[in-house]
Amino acid sequence: MTDPTLYAVTGAALVGIGFYGLLSARHLLRRVIAFNVIGSGLFVFFGAAGARGETVDPVPQALIITGIVVALSASALAVGLIAAQARARARATLPDEDRGGDA
Amino acid sequence: MTLLLDVTLCAFVLGIALAAVAGHGVFRAVVFFIVYGLLLSVAWVRLDAVNVALAEAAIGGGLTGVLLLTTYGKLARDGAEAGAMGGGFNLPVGLICAGLSGALVWAWFALPLPDAPGPQTAEALPRAGAGNPVTAVLLNFRAWDTLLESVVLLTALIGVWILGRDEDWHARLGLPQHSRPGGVMAGFGRVLPPVGFLVGVYLVYVGADHPGGAFQGGTVLAAVGLVAALAGQIRPPRISDWQWRAALVVGPLVFITSGLAGAMFFGGFLTLPADIAAGAIFAIEAALAVSIAVTLALLVIGPPQAGHRA
Amino acid sequence: MPIPDHATLATYATYAFTGVGLFFFIAGTVGILRFPDVFSRLHALTKADNLGLGFITLGVAFQADTWRDIAVLALIWALALVAAGTVSQLIARDALAERDGR
Questions:
Q1: Which long-range contacts link B241-247 to residues 24+ away (Cβ below 8 Å)?
Q2: Which tens digit of pLDDT belongs to each residue from B40-58?
Q3: For position A6, what pLDDT does the model report?
Q4: Three-class secondary structure of residue C9 per DSSP
Q5: Mean local confidence (pLDDT), B249-264
Q6: Residue B69 and residue B85: Cα distance in Å, rounded?
Q7: Which of residues 69-88 of B touch C (CB under 8 A)?
Q8: I want to staple B217 with a disulfide (CB 3.0 to 4.6 A). Which of A67, B59, B96, B204 is the partner?
């Protein structure tokens, strides 16, 4: 058993990194990746909170598993939307952010 | 010594997340994201959460990575590939995000330390019907969340189907796949499915008392189906194929039925009395694993596309 | 010097084999970074990395409690081998087609 504070800090940093990616990326796939990084960072933070007592708490773990599956569903839907948009406009960026090229 | 391991692991996780989010090139970002998922599952093992590690490796790293890679291929096919890298480091946004991380760290130190994990959980676990506490929580104590989650999966699948073209609605799902007969992919598609099927079913079965469970096993089964489809061994279904639709809904249906039975006979929706809990959990998990496997595989395969050989 | 007992012998064996596996992984990584083209990098990736995985599996097997655990470890290594072999073949074939201009 390890001290979970290190992992909590990592999770917090991951949330920050993910939000930076979400706000500053123009290519839509990068936004899906950033969204997943935010989600997994939050899960690590939550899981570290559950590992703080003497015995590990199973309720956060169950909720995190649920969260992972729901994040996958959201990513699948997002990725379907991106593919449909690319089919219609041959572009992987949103119309008002289009500057020819990705970030 | 273990502190060194943890520090190295966290440093790698952060570095790879940075590369995935802000690196050059979208394809490289996707590959780094897959590596990130795998490293994160090692971190979950360090946090004493083996069930979550299995789920993260299979779903977070594996399936999400496959989803992103296939979409990258579709974008390239439609001529929407990435161009040159644009813009440098965005300082205001960077500061806001650093502030967000700092707020979370502050919240961590301000949180009160819990006593032994929920005394009610600890004393109810022996009556739950499963030796694995996470399975007990997922399928008994918080079964409501799991039921809704299985329905969310189904809803996402319907959303993905709607995103195909109108005229393709009756075609088979996904892009047509083929492999060289006698080639490596065809051989792989024959060798892997039996072993993978065994591993997946075992993960579902053993999840009652050891790390595993319906989600982890279902994902392995979905992956096996995807490999077989990629090798051209099985053809993806049409939306109108009723057997596949039945497989999609059998999980949520069994779950809802058990919940209604609980409401009628045992005093509450999704209540499981201690003597039948083990059997009920096993039945629900089996049905759920089938639905999860089919739903996840079809989520990755995508909307119906024209071009199949019929 | 008396022969050390089984547990210490097992620990030494684990250290030795894991060390050899680590060496192969480092060699494979250096190869991926320094080799000039796709095909030689695939050599480094498949051969060195899988051999390294095999040695690490062998080292970990000395810490296993039952024969069943060792069988599961062997299955893991076999599956990793099959997957890596297939994927490297497919990548190589694709790179060959791209180089010859399809």
A1: B244/B294, B244/B298, B247/B290, B247/B291, B247/B294
A2: 999 999 998 999 999 999 9
A3: 92
A4: helix
A5: 91
A6: 19
A7: none
A8: B204
In tens, the pLDDT along B134-165 reads: 998 888 888 899 999 999 999 999 999 999 88
B5 to chain C, any CB pair closer than 8 A? The answer is: no
pLDDT band at A101 (very low <50, low <70, confident <90, very high): very low
Amino acid letter, B213: G
Contact between B177 and B157 (Cβ < 8 Å): no
Q: Which two tokens stand for residue C71?
A: 């069988």
Q: Coil, strand or helix: which one is B239? A: coil
Query: What is residue C3's DSSP assignment?
Result: P
Task: Supply B244's token pair.
Answer: 């596949």
User: Does the beta carbon of B198 lie under 8 angstroms from any beta carbon of chain C?
Assistant: no
CA B81/CA B66 separation, integer angstroms: 17
Residue C54 predicted with pLDDT over 50 = yes
CA distance B90 to A24: 7
Residue B301's closest CA among B226, B197, B234?
Answer: B226
Which stretches within chain B are classed as H helix? 2-22, 26-46, 50-55, 64-77, 91-110, 119-124, 133-136, 143-162, 184-206, 214-230, 242-261, 277-301
Q: At a CB cut-off of 8 Å and minimum separation 6, what does C81 contact?
A: C50, C53, C54
**Distance (Å, whole) CA C57 – CA C77:** 7
Phi, psi of B88 (to 5 degrees): -90, -155
Cα first-last separation, chain C: 67
More confident residue, A17 or A97: A17
C residues 67-86 lying closer than 8 A (beta carbon) to B: 75, 79, 82-83, 85-86
pLDDT bin (cut points 50, 70, 90) of residue A102 is: very low
Question: Cβ(B64)–Cβ(B29) under 8 Å?
Answer: no
The size of the A-B interface in CB pairs under 8 A is: 279
Mean pLDDT of C78-101: 89
Reply yes or no on whether the pLDDT at B118 is more than 80.
no
- Bridge partners, B238 (sequence order): B172
Contact A76 B105 (CB under 8 A): no
For residue A9, the Cα-to-chain-centroid distance in whole angstroms is: 16
Report the C-alpha gap between B71 and B64 in whole angstroms. 11
